[in-house]
Amino acid sequence: MIQLKKVSKVFSNGLKVLDNIELTVQKNEFLYLVGPSGAGKSTLLKLIFREQHPSQGEIYIDNFLLNTIQADQIPYLRRNIGVVFQDFKLLPKRTVFENIAFALRFLNYSRRRLRRQVTQVLSLVGLNEKMSRLPSELSGGEQQRICIARAIVNNPSILLADEPTGNLDPDTSIDIIQLLSKINLLRNTTMIVATHNQAIVNDIRKRVIELKNGKIVRDQQLGAYCQ
Ligand code: ADP
Fold first, then answer.
1. Contact 164/85 with Cβ under 8 angstroms?
2. Which atom of ligand 1 sits closest to the CA of residue 163?
3. Which of 70, 181, 204, 209 is the most exposed place for a label (fewest CB within 10 A)?
4. Integer-rounded Cα radius of gyration of the chain
5. What is the model's pLDDT at position 222?
6. 166-209 pLDDT, tens per residue?
7. How far is ligand 1, taken at its centre, from the CA of residue 41, in Å?
């Protein structure tokens, strides 16, 4: 489903952030990307999302080579990939409902279909009763649930989460990862979660890919944060 073949990334200042990465992620897998700050985790996610280009190597999504994708095809690729960040990036003056519906704005759905899809995803994240609130009226954990709802409202086959618990307390962090795990099971969404959070990696065991100095130094099923 996602395949990186001999992928390297060198920034224009000469910094080699990813070095000969070989990685295959199967459909429906859930994996953590761990490693120290600066190890290249965000860059790896950005390459998959086609926000950055590899300097060398090939990236395939569903056997589709990203390297040669045309600019007008990128929106279609991105519709199939949801993204969640540490800082929630919600529209502050829009309600919860509007924030999620915003993600569907280019799809020409009928009002009925739009409402159905947004309410379904709000039930999945457990926040149906808060659909008329503004983001500022929600806790950090609730805001992240809304971001997750927004990222999956169009049922993408892949969800990339970059430090999704970075601004949350330990209990809320566990809830968020449990929610991602539930979505992975219920919707068969392939999940890649870049994280520093040792407790969640150790508590909710999944495949662990460890990056160090731009290389994969560990690929372990049901791994812990540290070897
Ligand atoms: P991580 O997510 O593991 O903390 P990143 O992928 O964000 O690591 O960054 C890896 C390294 O690449 C860092 O040293 C960072 O400063 C550098 N970096 C990230 N983006 C750029 C860029 N656009 N230009 C130059 N260096 C960058």
1. yes
2. 2
3. 70
4. 17
5. 87
6. 999 999 999 999 999 999 999 999 999 999 898 999 999 999 99
7. 8
* Best residue among 9, 11, 17 to mutate for probing ligand 1, ranked by most atoms within 8 Å of CB: 17
The residue whose two tokens read 């829009």 is 94
170 CB within 6 A, ligand 1: no
CB atoms within 10 A of CB 47: 23
Q: How many angstroms separate the CA atoms of 195 and 168, rounded?
A: 12
CB-based burial label for 108 (10 Å; 0-12, 13-18, 19+): exposed
Q: Which two tokens stand for residue 156?
A: 């993408």
Structure tokens that stand for 31 in this block: 């994996």
**Which segments within the chain are labelled E, that is strand?**
2-10, 16-25, 30-34, 56-61, 64-65, 81-84, 158-162, 190-194, 206-212, 215-223
In the chain, what is the straight-line distance between the N-terminal and C-terminal CA atoms, in Å? 27
